[in-house]
Amino acid sequence: MGNTEVNINGIRLNKTLFESCKWGSTPDGGMNRVALNDDDKSVREWFAEQSKSYGCSVKVDQVGNMFATRPGMNNSLPPIAMGSHLDTQPAGGKYDGIVGVMSALEVMKVIHENDIKTYAPIAICNWTDEEGARFSPAMLGSGVWAGVFTPEYAYARTDKNGTKLGDELKRIGFLGDTPAIYKENPLLAHFEVHIEQGPILQREDAPVAVVTGVQAMSWFNVELRGREQHCGTTPMDARADTLLAAAKMIIAINEAALGIPGSLASVAVINSTPQSINTLASRVQFNIDARAKDNGVLAQLEMRLKEVCDEVSAKTGVKIEVWDRFWNSPRITFDERMVETVRASAKESGFKYLDLQSGAGHDSVYTSKICPTAMIFVRCKDGISHNPSEFSTEQDIEAGAQVLLRAVLAYDNIIQAQEEHKH
Amino acid sequence: MGNTEVNINGIRLNKTLFESCKWGSTPDGGMNRVALNDDDKSVREWFAEQSKSYGCSVKVDQVGNMFATRPGMNNSLPPIAMGSHLDTQPAGGKYDGIVGVMSALEVMKVIHENDIKTYAPIAICNWTDEEGARFSPAMLGSGVWAGVFTPEYAYARTDKNGTKLGDELKRIGFLGDTPAIYKENPLLAHFEVHIEQGPILQREDAPVAVVTGVQAMSWFNVELRGREQHCGTTPMDARADTLLAAAKMIIAINEAALGIPGSLASVAVINSTPQSINTLASRVQFNIDARAKDNGVLAQLEMRLKEVCDEVSAKTGVKIEVWDRFWNSPRITFDERMVETVRASAKESGFKYLDLQSGAGHDSVYTSKICPTAMIFVRCKDGISHNPSEFSTEQDIEAGAQVLLRAVLAYDNIIQAQEEHKH
């Protein structure tokens, strides 16, 4: 099919990305387009119009997920999808999610302008509320599609003002009638371009990464109980200082991860009670975010974390009252053939690339449970994300979209060969 | 004057203490009698009646401080006062402050019942809002009397509901007309019995301490700035983890104080931003409470604290954006003759006693700026205070009151000798 000749227009892609950001942009160069607000409504409407002008028909499902599909030669097949999200953090940037949908739109433009007849239909997905910033939890739209949540669960999610997601969907005109479940609205595959949200590509001087899967992760809630004592009257050696014990645990947790290759452990949330300058904290709560390249390493890390915190507890007399692993997500391995397709595409495009695991959650985490999925990471400046200063260069975004274009067409060829072999 | 024969009735004292606690007692055995609430009104009225029945006349000043005075032989002299406070923390105990006023009342009873003619008048002070729990700052009533605050400043203090102290004084009938300033309502001396609020007397097996002064203290506000980074995508060696740096500082602060004899340093308040489990904190705020036996040691400690935190900052790349010593109170040395009077009284009473410095603030801190002041500490269980489980034994409270009784009478003798020597 001679597809190797077609190329992404990086300048146009970047222009379209900025055009799409006129809804929700903030004076600091960032974005505030939380799910289903008026700006999200506007960009959705714009996205639907854009897609239609490049040969797509647009479906909206019952939780607002958008599917812009261009027919192929064999429309009995579900589409090969390219998805991400247009919603942002309340103080987010122009790249997280948006690069994925805009890259997909650019790929669609190139396919359409070059009048490429794909074998399978090709679709762009805009997943609802990936950020979870307005309506928790994150990746809600793709989660419903994957059968992890029910539409009713999604409808009942409320924002901080008590507004329900279901009511907002209706208000902005994106409560669609396509069933919000993969069984009735299947995808053949799901490709996602996303900024790395980490500093490794920058450090290794590569524009793109082939994402092989998602790290194993666990979240813990830890609550400590020491003694509320007067800071002025309690000798240093007669204290059960809860915050001091927490500080020792935070350092031990850091050292534990440093000692286990392929693992990460972070404490980012801490709260002490009572908040009184001259009264030692009697209760401290903190969370641990633990991640590892595979489930075995995560299990090893988790054991070590408990061990080192128990040691601090024993030495300080501060009790660990709660040690609760309240969330766990085992390692996700993306579909081998999809990943290989992306890798070949990066190689053939002539870009330096790395194999990386995703450390963050993405819509692809949920689609991977249902259909072959792969991701392409695009380098971003200093690894900064969820911040107005989030940035990727025009060239790197072009590279990501180019890899996507090649991979989609190559995967379509694989599907065609496979289907034709059947007959 | 044969005063050595008179003795405190510990059983009666403890009974009176419990009687006074029927206003504001909580089901857990603690107290909630924050300044100027209905229970404070009731106990003030009861206290006035009690004092009158033991030969006192009662004055109330413009900020509600109560002065119950029993005339002496020379009523041209200001009274020798025994003061403390009847207000409590919202989840406080039956001993902090209350022991001081009840001991003074018991002393007054013994003096009255034994028909002792003191040379100077003797007074009991109930200082308004010592705790500062309802109306900040603490020691407000004694602070106004000492000229540290104006009555107008006190009137304008609001509680969490926006109610003004001045309006509450009026409402409960304790907006008196005695000028709330030492110049117009002087005291000859101020003795205060108070629970230790620390564990040293228990550890040293002594019922009472002679308080020689108050530690030097400083409070710091520290604000750190690192990088907001994704916990899942940022390698451990590419982080400027603000909370990890704070943890290292907390430990270094602790070690700094351990390395400087006679000093204390505590971090009890901490706040991290953003409170997101998978985003490293970019800002952490904490406070340091630094204390030392004298101003020189405090200065040494303060220098060391900055040094160790700077070291952590340099190593971690987390900046110290704010290092603000927002409060400092130099060491207070109580009047030598007053302290010696208390020490002699403890010795003659046959009690084991220690010399201690106060680590906490008390009304005596302000009175000591104006008139000769000394304090007597009473042992309390496990050093626990500001808590429903706060406790001192009947015997230890009796010991404190006995030392107070002897000291007041001895000091009165000293005054008498001094005055008669003048003539």
TrEMBL record, chains A, B:
<dbReference type="InterPro" id="IPR010158">
    <property type="entry name" value="Amidase_Cbmase"/>
</dbReference>
<dbReference type="InterPro" id="IPR002933">
    <property type="entry name" value="Peptidase_M20"/>
</dbReference>
<dbReference type="Pfam" id="PF01546">
    <property type="entry name" value="Peptidase_M20"/>
</dbReference>
<dbReference type="InterPro" id="IPR036264">
    <property type="entry name" value="Bact_exopeptidase_dim_dom"/>
</dbReference>
<comment type="similarity">
    <text>Belongs to the peptidase M20A family.</text>
</comment>
<keyword id="KW-0378">Hydrolase</keyword>
<protein>
    <submittedName>
        <fullName>Putative N-carbamoyl-L-amino acid hydrolase</fullName>
    </submittedName>
</protein>
<dbReference type="GO" id="GO:0016813">
    <property type="term" value="F:hydrolase activity, acting on carbon-nitrogen (but not peptide) bonds, in linear amidines"/>
</dbReference>
